[in-house]
Amino acid sequence: MREKSGKTLSDVQEVYSGPEGTLWELLMGEQIHAGGWKSSEELADLAGISNGQKVLDLCSALGAGLRFLVRRYGVQGFGLDGTEHMVEKARRRTEADGLSDKIEHRLGNVETIPWNDETFDVVWGEDAWCYVEDKPAMIAESARVLKPGGTIAFTDWTEGPKGLPDADGLRICTFMKFPYVESRAGWEKLLTNNGFEVQVSDDLSKGFADWVDYYIRTVGQQKTFDALRIIGWDEELFGAMAEEMRFMAAKAHDGAFGRSRLVARKR
User: I need a labelling partner for 99 at 20 to 30 A (CA). Which of 26, 86, 160, 257 fits?
Assistant: First the structure.
């Protein structure tokens, strides 16, 4: 996919400050990424995350990823997200879980990270960097704030192994409010160009297609009432969103749209 949708941070802020963000939490859980706990655990183990490390979660949303890492691995957590509504909710939920002394949440743009050079052991992301407009800037900033030998580990919604035609990509990105989606090879190139050595690069597209099917079944069967209440009982909007989800699922099953996992070390 070469064309961009024109979506920006303000579009993402609108989504996650309103009913659409609540709907994604309904479908995907508080972690808001495919695979939930198991996916996070697999990524953390591949990254070699361990007790006491300082981990920066970029596009940290509700903070569930950091709360998982603190509870499961004993890290020190730092979150950066561009939507004030999400940052405030993350702070409240972190406090409710008794973890405010172990996690700091900041409002800010991941393209200009507000921490000093060589601060973190790990930069972390889960299915969220597809929302970032200037991905090269974010990766350059990630390299800057990582210590030498530090790790960047993330999953993201990406082009599938067959490639995503521009027209299909624009349709998906417009619906999802993505500026564009990167390919797995594109992520590898960005990492290499910024002084990283790629250690893991996995295509997760087949499992991703199954997850999209699961979300469609969930909202179309078990949680229809809940979803309609979130969007103000607008059945026409509900139908239109379901159609876009079905299109996305078809592209995922076709191998055009998918999900990737990457882990790299800063040289």
Answer: 26
Q: Give 258's strand partners.
A: 158
Q: Look up the CATH number of domain 9-266.
A: 3.40.50.150
Q: Please give the angle made by the CA atoms of 63, 35 and 222, to the nearest 5 degrees.
A: 95
CB 191 within 8 A of CB 265: no
Judged by phi (left if over 0) then psi (alpha if -120 to 50, else beta), residue 100 lies in alpha
Write b or e for each residue in 198-218: b if 16 or more Cβ atoms lie within 10 A of its Cβ, otherwise e: eeeeebbbeebbebbeebbeb
Per-residue confidence band for 247, with pLDDT thresholds at 50, 70 and 90: very high
DSSP 8-class letter at 192 = H
Q: Which residues pair with 1 in a beta bridge?
A: none
Q: What is the 3-state secondary structure (H, E, C) of 88-136?
A: HHHHHHHHHCCCCCCEEEEECCCCCCCCCCCCEEEEEEECCHHHCCCHH
Nearest-angstrom CA–CA distance, 106 and 213 = 34
Residue 1 has pLDDT above 90, yes or no: no
Task: Give the model confidence (pLDDT) of 181-210 as tens digits.
Answer: 999 999 999 999 999 999 999 999 989 999
**Torsion sign (Cα): 97, 100, 106, 107:** positive
Structure tokens at 119: 């601060």
Token couple for 210: 């199954």
Q: Are 53 and 75 in contact (CB under 8 A)?
A: yes
Task: Give the up-direction half-sphere exposure of residue 78: CA atoms within 13 A in the CB hemisphere.
Answer: 18
